[in-house]
Amino acid sequence: MSVITHVEIESAGVVGAGGAGFPTHVKLSAQADTVIVNAAECEPLLHKDKEILRRHGDEVLAGLAAAAELTGAEHAIIAIKEKYRDVIASLRGKLSPNMSIAPLADAYPAGDEMILVYDVLGRVVRPGGIPPDVGAVVINVETAFNVASSQTGPVTEKFLTIGGAVAEPVTLRVPLGISLAECISAAGGPTVEDANYIVGGVMMGQLETDLDAPVDKTTGGVIVLPSGHVVIRRLKRDWKQVSRIARSACDQCSFCTELCPRYLLGHPVQPHLAMRALGFNLLSDAGLPGAEFCCECNLCSMYACPEGLDPKVIYAENKRKLAESGEKWQDPPFNPRRPVLHMSDRKAPMSRLMTRLALTGFTNTGPLNDTTVTTRKVGIKLKQHVGAACEPVVKVGQTVRIGDEVGAVPRSDGKPALGAPVHASIDGTVTAIENNIVRIEKE
Ligand code: SF4
Ligand code: SF4
């Protein structure tokens, strides 16, 4: 196989498969001394990254090698939990001389890029910065897999774990745009009558009520839980409830801050001060400075706070306000010489987190079914990535084949916007283009 290029990765529509969907050809335009494949996968009950590595280690290593080549990196590292010894053993014999494995503790959080770069390299990214600032580029396992596949075709499939209260927790391989309902059905369906669906994991995911919603390039998993479950009750609290309880019950113990990983890195994130600002009516419509540096890991709310309060929601709400108001903390305080203290011993051990979240009763495996789930219709989102939504390049009634481009990145002044093209994931006919979704059905 010839050397993989930025253009091939861009044309294939590869974006970050483990987070917000940052276009990978742009990420790999940075220069770095180290590329890290992020296999930390610290969300409880999710298993797709480890399963991809177990079944498709060769492709992931090929994607990692390509990423190292494109960024000029001398070192290529796979960061994976130490407990997955079989996966690590299967990779060891295949590593190139510039590749190594960084074993991680079984704790939360671990997959956040800033935390991973510190855990693996001991380097601290300043607030508002990105890993290339300290010579590192981080890509997800599935992203590396897609980079390796970019010479043979565009991204038309997705891996995701379906876990929690389903008959057969599993990691599926599905066509992009398949409905969540079909994925849940492929896992045997819910085992509870009052099922709730969290897309993306119990710590950082969102409740989804529309099961017709299509899977996109960033969908990492769906966790099914009954209505009375503690996680569902927490996620269903609205802002009014969160702020009312917070005002009356926060005793300023600061446990939330002492366990906040961004605070431990030296970033200006102190959730107890956000709670204090709320209690004294000091929050403005412009948003609370510092909220933009919270990674929304939810450790403060779901684990640290002894009162069951929600400092993460306070920060998330203020982050949204900051984004709307356009306010940015231009030069946030940061001392690069301040040592990072306690990072390893203040994470939540996974077993304790699972107990705290009442998840120990669920099967905690998600073996990969590598046969692509079939479907008769898909909805291809025109925006599955950070940046501008794609413009449709097909018309209703048009016949398309798997891999045909159905949405292109818009251009202005001859230059493409930040984004990545999207492609048909089944053969069929375009039946509708609505709400930024291209609908395709098999004849
Ligand atoms: S841990 Fe809870 S009670 Fe303590 S300061 Fe934070 S929000 Fe308040
Ligand atoms: S969610 Fe809480 S613990 Fe996580 S970074 Fe934000 S403030 Fe810190």
Folded structure, characterized:
With 443 residues, this protein is α/β, with parallel strands linked by helices. The protein has four domains: 6-149, Rossmann fold (3-Layer(aba) Sandwich), CATH 3.40.50.11540; 157-229 and 359-369, Ubiquitin-like (UB roll) (Roll); 241-356, no CATH class; 377-441, OB fold (Dihydrolipoamide Acetyltransferase, E2P) (Beta Barrel), CATH 2.40.50. The protein has 15 helices and 21 strands. A six-stranded mixed sheet has the order 9-8-10-6-7-12. Helix 3 runs parallel beside helix 4 and helix 3 crosses helix 6. The longest helix has 24 residues, at 48-71. The protein is globular and about 60 Å long. The model has no long low-confidence stretch (mean pLDDT 94). The structure holds iron/sulfur cluster (2 copies).
What's the short version?
With 443 residues, the protein is α/β, with parallel strands linked by helices. Helices cover 29% and strands 20% of the residues. Helix 3 crosses helix 6, helix 9 (239-249) crosses helix 12 (271-279) and helix 9 (239-249) packs across helix 14.
Write out the strand line-up for the largest beta sheet, numbering strands in chain order. 9-8-10-6-7-12
CATH superfamily of the largest domain: NADH-ubiquinone oxidoreductase 51kDa subunit
CATH-level-2 architecture of the largest domain: 3-Layer(aba) Sandwich
| CATH class categorisation of the largest domain | Alpha Beta
Distance between the termini: 36 Å
Give a count of the beta strands, DSSP E runs of length 2 or more. Answer: 21
Tally of contiguous helical segments:
15
